[in-house]
Input
Amino acid sequence: MLVIGSFLTAVVLFSFSLLGGYYFYAMLWKTFNDTAEPDSWKGHIFFAALVIAQIIGIGILVFALYVATYAGL
Output
């Protein structure tokens, strides 16, 4: 039961993180492009770095839930 609960928690957090994250990225992207030249390669690198950071963060979160579940915490 704890395994199912932590898996569902991870899925829900992942979903909310994606929704909130991409909305946040869209706002940052618009702000960045309004202040920089359009279609700047720097903007694409900045955006890619944010997406990679989010994926790493979600990976750490899921790993922490997995460890907590199997450690019986």
